[in-house]
Amino acid sequence: MSILTLLIPLGLMPMHFAQAQQDPFGSDTKPAATPDTPPSMTTGPDAIEQQLRGKLSEKTSIHVNEASLNEFLHLLSEKTNTPMVLDTRALEEIGLSPQQPVRVSLQNASLRTVLKISLRPLDLTYMIKDEVIQITTLEHAENHLVTKVYALADPLKDKAAKVIRAVTSTVIPDTWEVLGGPSTIVAIESVLVVSTTEETHEQIDSLLRKIETAMQTGKTSS
């Protein structure tokens, strides 16, 4: 096995591994969709991955004086009720062991922040893949890019080229194809199609929100 399971999904005990692979959120049966809700919005990998992105924004507190990476992620996974796996093969490629010590103390921080602060010193990151949060190396994450589509808000609809320049010059500049990186961004009228890592997508989303808010505020005050 190249990936070490740290927590079997939400609400399930470890012996339910086979079931967990099918449903990381621990439901014995999937709820039937209501007549007004398309099934595609409530079931399937996309819905589960969207729930995981919501989990990353939830607040938690954790204090670990010294624990192995494996133990730390298992504790964090249980504490936040979030399925996580450790990509041991990718770690082995950079000579890192699951027993690598981790020290972190954070109060009322998002799961996203906890992961970033604890993984950054080890040159590790996370990505949402196969309906779980996978902890892996930066290089491995760059080889498994996530493609997302961003519909530009009204104030930005005619400014796609400028938005692209803002993104590629301020959000991890060396990750973009124009500078030899793996990530790409193209515009189709008022829609951006972006292929990059999970963490970079989060920064893009934050930047677009800030730009939109600033432009709307400027219009309101003028």
Please outline what is shown here:
This protein is 39% helix and 25% strand.
Number of contiguous helices: 8
Rounded to the nearest angstrom, the radius of gyration is: 19 Å
Q: Encode the helix/strand succession as letters.
A: EHHEHEHEHEEHEHEEH
Sheet bearing the most strands, described?
Answer: 4 strands, mixed
Strand order, biggest sheet?
Answer: 1-3-6-5
Mean of residue pLDDT values: 82
Which range best describes the helical content: under 10%, 10-25%, 25-40%, 40-55%, 55-70% or over 70%?
25-40%
Helix/strand structural class: alpha+beta
Strand segment tally:
9
Question: Judging from the principal axes of the Cα atoms, what is the shape?
Answer: globular
Give the terminus-to-terminus CA distance: 60 Å
Strand content: 25-35%
Task: Give a verbal description of the structure.
The chain is α+β, with helices and mostly antiparallel strands and 222 residues long. The chain contains 8 helices and 9 strands. Strands 1-3-6-5 form a 4-stranded mixed beta sheet. A hairpin with a 2-residue loop joins strand 8 and strand 9. The N terminus is likely disordered.
Topology:
Elements (H helix, E strand, L loop, with lengths): L2 E3 L11 H6 L22 H13 L1 E10 H12 L3 E4 H6 L7 E10 H9 L4 E6 L2 E6 H5 L3 E6 L8 H11 L13 E5 L2 E6 L1 H24 L1
Parallel strand pairs: 3-6
Antiparallel strand pairs: 1-3, 2-4, 5-6, 7-9, 8-9
